[in-house]
Structures are given as C-alpha cells and as structure tokens.
Known about the structure:
Oligomer: heterodimer
Number of helices of chain B: 15
Largest interface: A-B, 36 and 27 residues
Strand order of the largest sheet of chain A: 2-3-1-9-8-10
Largest sheet of chain B: 8 strands, parallel
Number of strands of chain B: 16
Shape of chain B: elongated
Largest sheet of chain A: 6 strands, antiparallel
Strand content of chain A: 15-25%
Distance between the termini of chain A: 28 Å
Radius of gyration of chain A: 24 Å
Number of strands of chain A: 17
Shape of chain A: globular
Amino acid sequence: xxxxxxxxxxxxxxxxxxxxxxxxxxxxxxxxxxxxxxxxxxxxxxxxxxxxxxxxxxxxxxxxxxxxxxxxxxxxxxxxxxxxxxxxxxxxxxxxxxxxxxxxxxxxxxxxxxxxxxxxxxxxxxxxxxxxxxxxxxxxxxxxxxxxxxxxxxxxxxxxxxxxxxxxxxxxxxxxxxxxxxxxxxxxxxxxxxxxxxxxxxxxxxxxxxxxxxxxxxxxxxxxxxxxxxxxxxxxxxxxxxxxxxxxxxxxxxxxxxxxxxxxxxxxxxxxxxxxxxxxxxxxxxxxxxxxxxxxxxxxxxxxxxxxxxxxxxxxxxxxxxxxxxxxxxxxxxxxxxxxxxxxxxxxxxxxxxxxxxxxxxxxxxxxxxxxxxxxxxxxxxxxxxxxxxxxxxxxxxxxxxxxxxxxxxxxxxxxxxxxxxxxxxxxxxxxxxxxxxxxxxxxxxxxxxxxxxxxxxxxxxxxxxxxxxxxxxxxxxxxxxxxxxxxxxxxxxxxxxxxxxxxxxxxxxxxxxxxxxxxxxxxxxxxxxxxxxxxxxxxxxxxxxxxxxxxxxxxxxxxxxxxxxxxxxxxxxxxxxxxxxxxxxxxxxxxxxxxxxxxxxxxxxxxxxxxxxxxxxxxxxxxxx
Amino acid sequence: xxxxxxxxxxxxxxxxxxxxxxxxxxxxxxxxxxxxxxxxxxxxxxxxxxxxxxxxxxxxxxxxxxxxxxxxxxxxxxxxxxxxxxxxxxxxxxxxxxxxxxxxxxxxxxxxxxxxxxxxxxxxxxxxxxxxxxxxxxxxxxxxxxxxxxxxxxxxxxxxxxxxxxxxxxxxxxxxxxxxxxxxxxxxxxxxxxxxxxxxxxxxxxxxxxxxxxxxxxxxxxxxxxxxxxxxxxxxxxxxxxxxxxxxxxxxxxxxxxxxxxxxxxxxxxxxxxxxxxxxxxxxxxxxxxxxxxxxxxxxxxxxxxxxxxxxxxxxxxxxxxxxxxxxxxxxxxxxxxxxxxxxxxxxxxxxxxxxxxxxxxxxxxxxxxxxxxxxxxxxxxxxxxxxxxxxxxxxx
Lengths: 626, 397
C-alpha cells in the first residue's frame, strides 16, 4: 500500500513532494522523489513497507539510472519475474517487487504489463526516450487520478493530492454528483471534480516530452462474450482450483504476517480454507459483527474458523464506535462513497492491523462468478418477457404492483414491467434511487439532464449482443460497480488503517477462466456454482433446502441512521454544504429523516448516500476555504 | 499401408486366410477426425500378420472411405446422437460380428468397447487387448479399471498413461507402453516462411491444451520478435473466447485462427512454420490431459521443433533439448521464453528440428504398428494359447 504522484511541470520536484506529503497516510514509512531536471519531470512515492522492508526505497532505477519507477501496489509473481529477468542478464540491487518493474520495462517495453500478476498503478520514466508510462491493474484495485492540460500531465494516487497542488481544479462536477446519488459511488473514468479523471482499469497511458502528448490504450479487459459451451462443472472446478490455489499461494508471500478476513460467507470461507491449506503458519482470521440489528455473521464465521482451526479474532462495531468513527471516515475518503460496508471493513482492518499487515479477502467473487441473485432473476425476467404476449405484460405488472408491499410481489411486478434491462438492473441495485431525485435535488442538480447518467451507463455496458442478459450484467458489474465501488472501498477502508487487503478472486487466470465458461454454469444452483465447487465439504453448514443461501453482506445502516448517526443527519440538515450550496433541498430530506427516525419507513437507501456525500462535501468545502 | 492376403471366402462371405484373426473394436474411426481414429486406422491397415476386421460406428462419408481403404470395416448404424447410445450399439453389434468372424484376438481401441471385448473373450475364447490413451481414464475410472483388469494385454500410449492405468487400482495381466506414431511425409522439404511462424494444432475444446497460456505468451514473444505470427489450427467451442482473449491482449493482428482445415493444408503449415507450440498442462481433479500428443511427432516429421509442457504424455513424445523444449506449461514466461529462443536462434531450431525428424522416423506408423503386432502375436503364440495369463508390466524406454 503506497501512493504515487508525478508531474511533467516540476523541474525541482516541489509539486510532487507536496503531493506525496498529502499521500502520507497511504505510505507512512518512507518517501522519495526523482526529478529529471532537463525534462522538468518528477515522480514520487510514499511507501508502506510490506516486502523488502529495508531495501524498498522509491523511486528506484535500473543499473544506469535511465529508467525510473514509482509504484503503488503488489506484484504477487515478482519472484518468478525476477528469475526470468536474471536469466536474461539483468542485475538487481534490491529484493522487492518494485525493481522488477524497471527491468521488465527494459525487457518488454509496454508489453511488460501482461505477465504482471497483482494490484498496481505505476509510473515509469524513461529518461532516454523522454517518455512516461502509466499503467493500472486489470480491475482497478489501485487508483490513479490524472489531470492533463496543454500537453502536460499531473497524476496522483488520490484526487486530494492533485487538488492540493492544483487548487483551481477544485470545482465539483454536478454530473458526477448526480451519478453519485444514483449509484452511491462516483463512476469512472471521471471523478467528482470536472477536470480530473481516472486512468481506467487495464489501461496504459504514454506521455512524451518531445511532442505527441498523451496516448492511451486498453491492455486488458474482462472477457465479455457469451460463450455457449457444454462442459462439466467438475472439470471447470478442477481448473479453477489450480488457479485459485496459485492465487492464494502467491498472495500469502510477504515479509509481514498475513491473515484472512472471514465473513462466514462462501467466498471468504473458500479463501480461508485454501490459505489454511497452503500455509505452514497458524492461520489468523478476522471477523466484524454488530451490537444492533439481526445481520451479524459472526457465528457463521466462528464456526468456519473452528473447523479450520484458525486463530480467530472478532471485533464488534458498536453504536458508539459508529458515532465516533463514521463521520470522520466518510469525510476522509478521497472521493465520496456510500457503500455501507466501508465502515465495518475499515474497523476490521484497524482491528486486525496490530496482528497482521496483510489480509486476504473474497472481493470480486460475486461479480466474476455470478453470485448476485439478481442475475438469475433478471435472466428469468428476460425469458418471461420473451414468452409473454406484449399486451399482457403491462396490466399484469400493474396488478402485481397494486397487490401490496410484499417484496415478492414487488419483485414480480418489477420483473414484468416493460422496462429495458439496463434500467431494470439499475433500479434493482440502487433501490430505484434515480426516481427520487425530483423534489430532493436543489437548483444546481435539478437543472441537469438526468438522462445522462443512464446514457453513460449504457455506453459502459455496450450492446447486449443477443447473449444472456446475466452475462451482460455480470460484465457491467465487472467494469462499473467492481472498480468504482467494491475496490475503492477495499483500497480506502484498509489503507486508512495502513493494512493491505489482497483480493484472491481477481487473479488474472481465474478471472479469464470465469469469463470463458457458459453463463448457465455460473448461475446453476443458487449461483456461483464454481466457487461452491471450490468449497471443501463440511466447512459451511448448508442452509434450509441443502443450499448455501446467498447472504448479502448487510450492514445495520437503518439502525445506525436512527441511533448513532441521527445527530450527524440533523447537523447536515442544519448546515451541510450540500444543502447550503443548493445541491439538495432541505424540505424533502427533512421529511425522509423524520419518517426514518420515527421508524415508519426505512429510507436508508437515500439517507446513507446523502450523509456520505454531505460529510465528504463539508470536508471538501473546508479545503476550499483553506 | 499394410497388405492383406485373401485366400478364400467362407460361407458367410468372410474371407479366410491361414493367419490368426484380429477384431478391432473402435468407437472412433476415419473419416471422422481425431487421434484415436488415426491409431485405429493405422493399426487396421498396417497389421499384416492377422486377418483383420474392424467394427466401428457409421458416419458421414464412411462408405466411400471404407471402399477406398482396403480395410474390412463393419459399420454400426444408429444409436442416436448420444454417445452412450452409440457405444451400447457398438458393443452389441461387435458381439454379433464376432460370432461370425471368430476372432483369435480382440483389440479394443477405447475403454468404451471393453465390455464387448471382455464378453467375446469369455464366450469365444479370444484373447483381448485394450488400448489406453489418457483422457478416458480420468473421465471413466471405473470402466478403465474394468478394462485393465480383464484384458490379456493392456497397451498404454505413454509412461504417463501407464501410470494412470495403474492408478485405477486394477492390476493388468500385462501392461506395455507403445508410443503413438506418425505418418512420415514422402518428401521432406522445409519451406520456412519469411515471417516467423508459430503453429498450434489442436481442437480448441479442452482447456488443458494451453491455448490461453499461448495468448499470454505470444504477447511477450511479439516484443522480442515483432514480426512473429501465431497460426492456430483447430476449432472448438472455446474458440470465440480465445479470440476475445487475443484481442484483450492486443495481439489479434499477429494471430490467425484457421479453424479446422484439411490434412494437406495443415501439413503445408507444418512445412512452412518455424515451430509448433502446444503447452498442454495437467488438469486437476483427476482429469488426465494429454496422453501422448501425436502432433509433436507430426511436427518432427516435418523437421520442426516443438515447445511442450514438461508433464504428462509429452514427456514421451518430446525429448527435451533434442526434439524440442519442455517447459512448465502454466508458466507464461517459460513458454514465451522457449518460443522466442527458437525463433531467434536458427541453429537451435535446425538442430532440434533435425532431432525431431529422427525421432518421428523412429515413430513412423509402420514401426509402431509392428510393435503392437508383435505384442498381439504373442497373445496367440502356441505357448501362450491356453496358458494362464502372465502378470507383468513391460515398460520399454
């Protein structure tokens, strides 16, 4: 876990040093800046020491100082890469993974990204070619924000760092705020401010000092074509097992203690079981639970830990913890994020940090292996639509909607409504928040063309190409929700505790395998059939009906908004920037807050994004008037 | 091609010679394409010391193929589109043909024909021989054990396959390893293309063939040999995904997917390419993978070195450093390194290519067929007839 920064207008390294200072919390252990005075280029890095503790100072260079790298992340297969490079005559002066990048660049040029297994962003400065290469990992596990102007380039791991040295860029993008309200995260490749963007996952950017400016291309994308193919689940599971064990094994290599975040669900249980199998050390597992609501998974996790014989640790996120920590954490995020699981993940990271510096997590399994029940339901909806006569659909849907508030009928109604698949999916995952903009949006957002969010989403999704709806939606989640919500949460929540969270399911071979099997295999049974196949028998107690029912990682957000966070909501209504500056209307928001507080309604789907954005915007605004 | 002397005709229309009679039972036979098809056909046409008859399923083009082949083939019609149904019919029909043909030896080329072979052995006193490849042992371990237990002779196509047979738990009466063979081109004149060309020849149906690793490896090879092209021969349901993978690695302009092409076209590519690469890996979970890899020998027949995985049947099909390079087939860097090394080192390519040619000659079908025939003849040699089966394992090399 580190942070990087760079500028092509920084002959003294002052700008980059200043950005690095802002990134200190990402890398408390060390800082370095390299400047090419003649080219006016500087790159820098802040470092959290995970590997090669003494020898990992950055930026570092090749033997003759012509190629420099600043790197954020981990290269899990760096030992194998080093072996290959040594055989090709490269000489190494450190033991860490950073130096591998320099020699890999010398050997393979831009193609160096292909053999990399890991999570990363890096900047390589090639002094001879006077060329900068920026790269981001396949799924966007590590962030990189960019600002281009007049052929010059600035970049940093965090938006905040860029804005510190370019204060005039601190202009919120109303469209990004609209998108944030709809999705509860800021979708890439844009950012929450207008003139800063992100390098998309799996992209390479090249900048040249002597003309040419920036050019950008994709070097990897999740496979999206629907494959129609009959093969046995067993044979795919066998193949997945090879890849999965490799993924776990390489992710457990570190010069510091490694643990597993265990929720008791299928994904983290498979990770923990495999980790226990490949390690010779006693395995440490960690779980977070709550003192309110009925959603704690701690018992399931404890049962798994007992069966695995792991050294298990539990932390309870109490309501007073929430009151104390949530506002500061939500405000401290680089960009606003309203994923309710961010706080528990952060608290878990903080709790685990004294015992382990690295933890493995099960993120990405749902998106890659078809874990969301929505895929199956929406696929079924597509089939029902195809089978029903057109005139029957609308009245039937209406009748079901009027049948009451039961979630089953509401779902059936939604399933039958003649809404395009993309919107139907969007409303499912966002609880239809886009329909609640009216009245809630203040003048600065109400004037926007609300269709743009949907148009942008459609552009990201691409054409359905006649394949299974589920495959299309899985792919959309892999390029939208996964990088911009799940992985932002993973990176920031763990990073704020100086802990490195490594995702096992995003191993490239495993991801490519997942993309190459028939969609029906992913959705077989209760979904995520391949991951279930990886589960050692007897480890998880099957639910009723023999299956392992999908348990969404629910957080008692509704209870928190009534309890420990009620005061924060009130403060927001009283003097929050998002209301003061005319982004949102107090009137409707106040009604929602009081209905929610009275317990007559659950408005947490709207209030949580408002709260997250509100406290974030207050901090952002504070920066503005510094 | 072997010859068959036909001296007389029996009342049921079956010609009789003085030679012992061999009945070959095979679920796969040309003109259908595939490795087992070739093995069955080369044995049927090459074994001269027996009077041979083949029982095989019918299929498109079978009639004209059989008319031109000089091999007596009894085609079994029907069974529907399901393989299980076809195999059941094949076994039933084999019994019927055997009653008329009265074979001395029954050779089953695939374990799915082993029930009929066993029955013919018991009812008619014929000796039985069973071929083992690899994949079928992983897919049907119980049937494989049955086949190995009851055959008088078990033939494994590689030491790896022999290990798979042993792992079924059955103790074969006699187990020998006879490597697969290859056809040698009549005239061998390499015509290498100017553009460095890497060939992969395999159905794109099985993940273990390593097409995915080839995509990742070629992305690196192209860095050191920018002009290189990768020619992918073969078709299958994984092909669309593979094409997409190639696009996602940005190598689509250097790859050509030719699909299933004729033998002549394939041989033409073998003549013109620099090398063949097929890094088959061992699948997990009891799946067997590559039993031998005839295509490695075929490349050698055209004087081409190969890059193969250092596991499974390839260990018998390829001599590391003599006919090709064996590398960890799951290691992209190793595969890429071996390919680039061959593309950049013409002397090495020539030496391994020449070695491959010699190795292929040692595995020319007539040589291999002779080995099989010797084993089959032993089954019917006077001292063997009526004697209790000798339990031994005979592993050459």
